[in-house]
Structures are given as C-alpha cells and as structure tokens.
Amino acid sequence: MKPNELIEAAIQAAGNAHAPYSGYHVGAALLCVDGTVFTGCNVENASYGLTNCAERTAIFSAVAAGHKEFKAMAIAATKEPTPFPCGACRQVMAEFCGPDLPVYVAQAEGFEATTLGELLPKCFDLKA
C-alpha cells in the first residue's frame, strides 16, 4: 500500500472523531504486515485524561483483532496543526511497532515521512 492510500484511510477515519471539546479531528491508519488496515480516530471525554488518541485507537483495535505485526502508520487531521503523535501514542507505538516503523504525517501540502525511532529515540523498552 502506498503512503497516499494509507493517508487517505486516515483522513476518512478523522471524519469519525468525537472531538466536541478541541474541535481537532484526527484519524490514523495502521497497516498490518498481512495488508489489513485498521483505522482509529480521537475520542474525547469531558474528563480529558480519559480521551483516546487516533493512533492508540488504531493500534488497540488491531491488537484486539489479533494483529501484532505492523508495517506503517499514517496520521491526518482535519485542520492545523500537523498531527504529530503525542508522547503517550509514541510509547504505545514503540511497544507494538519498533523504531523502524514508517510514519506518514499528513500536512496541508503532502505529508512528512519519518520513523518511530526518529519520533521517539531511546524509548522505554522492557524487552531490550
């Protein structure tokens, strides 16, 4: 799957976001090694600590369905700023994806390609 196709899936997922407090709708699309794509959106809560980000929603959905090997992730938002993953999402990504995971972050014009290792160097890892 091409990065643009994965980004399009993330854009579609952002349309399902529940973001009545921030108005910031984010979607993520996670590509499994078998070609399956899981999407997620941010789900806000009046108790902000209970909010779940799009990236974690996608990963948790994939894991709940029995998938644990991933090939790439795309993240998109319906408005600025650019939706780089928060620290909590980066750590969850590190748990399941590894530092070489390509991460495509949609921008107003195109996307930025990076890796999880670039986003979260020296992550906490009990497996190391």
From TrEMBL:
Q: Name one GO cellular component term.
A: cytosol
Annotated catalysed reactions: 2'-deoxycytidine + H2O + H(+) = 2'-deoxyuridine + NH4(+); cytidine + H2O + H(+) = uridine + NH4(+)
Annotated residues that bind Zn(2+) are located at: C53, C86, C89
- Per its record, how is this protein called by name? Cytidine deaminase
Q: Which cofactor does it need?
A: Zn(2+)
Q: Which GO terms describe its molecular function?
A: cytidine deaminase activity; identical protein binding; zinc ion binding
Q: Name one Pfam family in it.
A: dCMP_cyt_deam_1
EC number from the UniProt entry: 3.5.4.5
Which keywords does UniProt give here?
Hydrolase, Metal-binding, Zinc
Q: One biological process GO term for this chain? A: pyrimidine-containing compound metabolic process
Family label: Belongs to the cytidine and deoxycytidylate deaminase family.
Q: Active site at which residues?
A: E55
> What is the superkingdom listed in this entry's lineage?
Bacteria
Q: Which residues bind substrate?
A: N42, V43, E44, N45, A46, S47, Y48
Specify the CMP/dCMP-type deaminase domain's residue ranges: 1-127
Q: Which InterPro entries match?
A: APOBEC/CMP_deaminase_Zn-bd (IPR016192), CMP_dCMP_dom (IPR002125), Cyt/Deoxycyt_deaminase (IPR050202), Cyt_deam_tetra (IPR006262), Cytidine_deaminase-like (IPR016193)
Q: Which SUPFAM superfamilies match?
A: Cytidine deaminase-like (SSF53927)
PROSITE patterns, A to Z: CYT_DCMP_DEAMINASES_1, CYT_DCMP_DEAMINASES_2
